[in-house]
Each structure stands twice: as structure tokens, then as C-alpha cells.
Amino acid sequence: MIATDAALVLFSGGQDSTTCLAWALERYNRVETIGFDYGQRHAIELQVRPRVLERLRAYKPEWAARLGEDHMIDLSLISQLSRTAMTEDIEIVMQENGLPNTFVPGRNLMFMTVAATLAYRRGLNVLVGGMCETDFSGYPDCRDDTMKALQVALNLGMDTRVKLETPLMWLDKAQTWTLAESLGGQGLVDLIREGTHTCYLGERGALHDWGYGCGKCPACELRARGYLQYAAAKTAPPADPV
């Protein structure tokens, strides 16, 4: 059943946000997207995202009817506030606080706040993000508690009833591939594999089984491992009946 709610999806052009966009298109009769240019090192994701949107529109007529305006927001100030491996050409390493230096402090908090502000103006009452704390790099702003607290703060601060939906929160990457297949079949899996970008280093040379990327950064490792587990589960023989 399609809900009458209208959703704004945080859409980067990566695997997770594309899966979330398909998820929203299956549930809401009006869906818009928002992306952010924050000086990211892998800015190639900004180049692939419009192509992914067009492929999604062409994939299902009902998705084309529901998918509305795309909004690109300049948040380059993020790269001015902190020095991270996501915004500068430096080696990816673990920090003394136990987090990789790919963590951009406040990024998702700012993303959601800006998205909520746009949603207020556009009359959209659902925010959808690809945050996940099951199979991730440990970022504190991807955790369920953070998103729940942020939903409360945003609604108190703007006197709204916006819902923050995070459909991947308790899924690992293999389950995220499986979710994509359940939403759009093998065609959507192939679209995500070939069209989206996840690699932190912006590598888009050879196409691997799991997609484009360097194969070595944390994002590629998660994506590749999840795809291999997903593919293995599909080819595994059925379990013997008990």
C-alpha cells in the first residue's frame, strides 16, 4: 500500500542511498531527493547521481511518476571545519579515539538538519537516510540513538512531526543487496552495481563484481564483502528440511 506521506531522501549516488531511494519510491506517492557538495574527496559521486536518478526513472513507470525534484546543496563549509580523509588527500588511518579519519564530525547531523529545513519548505514529512550501525565504520552519527534524538530535536525546534526513516539501520551489506533485489529485482541490483559510487578514493576504473572502486578503502571492503556474501547465499543449495 502506498502511503500518502511525502518523502525527502538523502541521496548521494551511492549503494545505500540508492537502495533507500528505491525503498521510498515503493512506499510514498511523492518523493524528492537532496544531495550535498561538501568538498568530498570522492566528488565523482556528484557526477554519477543524476545518471542514477535517470535510470531509476526509466526503470519503473510508477517510480518515474513519484520521483520529483532533486535538490543539490552547497555545504562546502564542512571541509573548512575539519581535516579528514574524506575531504583531503591524506592516508586513511585509525585515530586515537577509535574512529577512522574518514569520520567527518557533524556531517550527518548537518545533512539531516538542512534536509529537514528543505522538507519544511517543500511540505515533505518524511526524511529517509541510509545510516546504518550494523555493518559500518563506527561513525557515531550513523547510530540509531543519534537519529532518534535528532528527530526529537528537529521536531521540537521547528514544531513539526517529521519522521526520520533509516531502512538500513539494522541490515548488514549483504542484506542491503538482498533488499535491493526485493525492491526491484536483479535489474535494480545491476543498476546499483554498475551505476552507483561508494569508494572513498573516487576510483572508477575497472568494474568489479560488486561495482567500481579501489577495493581497499573501508567503503569498498564493506561493499565487496557484502556483495560476495549476497551472491554466495543466492547460489547456495537449499537447506535440507528438518
UniProtKB/TrEMBL annotation:
Keyword ATP-binding recorded: yes
E.C. designation(s): 6.3.4.20
Cofactor binding remark: Binds 1 zinc ion per subunit.
GO MF terms held by the record: ATP binding; ligase activity, forming carbon-nitrogen bonds; zinc ion binding
Annotated InterPro entries: QueC, Rossmann-like_a/b/a_fold
Pathway it works in: Purine metabolism; 7-cyano-7-deazaguanine biosynthesis
Gene Ontology BP, a term: tRNA queuosine(34) biosynthetic process
Entry cofactors: Zn(2+)
Class of the enzyme per the UniProt entry, highest EC level: ligase
Catalytic activity: 7-carboxy-7-carbaguanine + NH4(+) + 2 ATP = 7-cyano-7-carbaguanine + 2 AMP + 2 diphosphate + 2 H(+)
PANTHER family reported in the protein's UniProt record: 7-CYANO-7-DEAZAGUANINE SYNTHASE
Similarity-based family: Belongs to the QueC family.
NCBIfam families reported in the protein's UniProt record: 7-cyano-7-deazaguanine synthase QueC
The protein's role, per its UniProt record: Catalyzes the ATP-dependent conversion of 7-carboxy-7-deazaguanine (CDG) to 7-cyano-7-deazaguanine (preQ(0)).
The protein, known as: 7-cyano-7-deazaguanine synthase
